[in-house]
């Protein structure tokens, strides 16, 4: 896990170069025929990348984004009417049966299918109208790291080419500096330590906007790698009822992204801390663009959670009861 997480900057640097022409080609099509909506298809870590995509494409492109429910196609055999929509499928392996079925159903419903996959000759890649490779190389650790970060960078690159103007140019330029920012994050002191977590059985992960998008992935890794029951919320949503948990000396991981959501999130975290919650803050260092802060933060987090696992005598590479590829139907 640590080797794969540490390789992410080099992976992303190569990916941005290898995918530039293909991203421009896909972006040209999207400009010519803008989708009326985007459906995100994925499970687990890939589904969490889809939450990031929701904020990215809604904020930067103004296109509504919604998550697919794979059971609608796989279990209930229902056909959605998706004329004029774009279906973006994210999968490391490209072979989970329910994801493939959802992609087939989306295509049959009129959607154009774009696959972000790490295995370019996978069944999902063969089905898709367009493929954007992750170029993350084989990922062996059960807990995904580099493939998740590569999914986010691919989404950002596509968004930057799709849109035009100053904001798009700024994001594109910042992507060139992203690998260096991630390497710097690897050298930063840990933000999350074994001592912080050794007695924790339950915790909440809170973020706002893009911070909430990665909070979902952070909560999953706490469950997968450390065996901690963790649940992610928007910091705003947490105040609508679940905040009563803070009265019980709850451990809260505070995912702080310094973007438009920052002031509101910080105000909400102050209210939660005042109720007695124990806050463990996470933040990005040296990201040159607000939309890339989540990637830099996750780079540091992956190393921290892997190290904490080893300090707690857990195996971060092979958590009990999990397989690398989960094939649900």
Automatic annotation (TrEMBL):
Keyword Repeat: yes
One of the record's GO molecular function terms: glutamine-fructose-6-phosphate transaminase (isomerizing) activity
Species, as recorded: Pseudidiomarina piscicola
Gene3D superfamilies in the cross-refs: Glucose-6-phosphate isomerase like protein, domain 1
A biological-process GO annotation: carbohydrate derivative metabolic process
Swiss-Prot/TrEMBL keywords: Aminotransferase, Repeat, Transferase
Annotated transmembrane regions: none
Annotated Pfam families: SIS
InterPro entries: GlmS/AgaS_SIS, GlmS/FrlB_SIS, SIS_dom, SIS_dom_sf
Matches recorded under PROSITE patterns: SIS (PS51464)
This protein's record includes keyword Repeat: yes
EC number of the protein: 2.6.1.16
Protein name as it appears in the record: Glutamine--fructose-6-phosphate aminotransferase [isomerizing]
Domain SIS: 26-178, 193-329
């Amino acid at each position: 896990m640590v080797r794969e997480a540490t390789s992410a900057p080099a992976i992303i640097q190569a990916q941005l170069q290898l995918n530039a022409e293909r991203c421009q080609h896909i972006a040209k099509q999207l400009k010519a025929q803008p989708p009326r909506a985007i459906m995100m298809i994925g499970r687990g870590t890939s589904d969490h990348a889809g939450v990031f995509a929701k904020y990215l494409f809604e904020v930067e492109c103004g296109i509504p984004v919604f998550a697919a429910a794979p059971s609608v196609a796989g279990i209930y055999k229902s056909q959605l009417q998706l004329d004029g929509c774009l279906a973006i499928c994210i999968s490391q392996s490209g072979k989970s049966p329910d994801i493939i079925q959802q992609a087939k159903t989306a295509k049959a419903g009129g959607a154009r299918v774009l696959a972000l996959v790490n295995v370019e000759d996978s069944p999902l890649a063969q089905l898709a109208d367009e493929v954007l490779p992750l170029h993350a190389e084989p990922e062996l650790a059960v807990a995904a790291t580099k493939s998740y970060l590569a999914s986010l960078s691919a989404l950002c690159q596509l968004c930057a080419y799709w849109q035009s103007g100053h904001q798009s140019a700024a994001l594109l330029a910042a992507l060139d500096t992203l690998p260096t920012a991630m390497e710097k994050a690897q050298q930063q002191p840990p933000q999350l330590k074994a001592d912080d977590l050794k007695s924790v059985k339950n915790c909440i992960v809170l973020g706002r906007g893009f911070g909430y998008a990665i909070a979902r992935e952070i909560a999953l890794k706490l469950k997968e790698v450390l065996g901690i029951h963790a649940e992610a919320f928007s910091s705003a949503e947490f105040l609508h009822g679940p905040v009563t948990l803070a009265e019980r000396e709850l451990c809260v991981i505070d995912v702080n992204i310094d973007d438009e959501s920052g002031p509101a999130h910080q105000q909400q975290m102050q209210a939660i801390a005042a109720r007695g919650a124990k806050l463990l803050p996470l933040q990005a260092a040296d990201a040159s663009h607000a939309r890339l802060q989540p990637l830099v933060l996750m780079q540091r987090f992956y190393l921290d959670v892997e190290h904490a696992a080893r300090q707690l005598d857990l195996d971060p590479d092979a958590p009990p009861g999990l397989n690398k590829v989960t094939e649900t139907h």
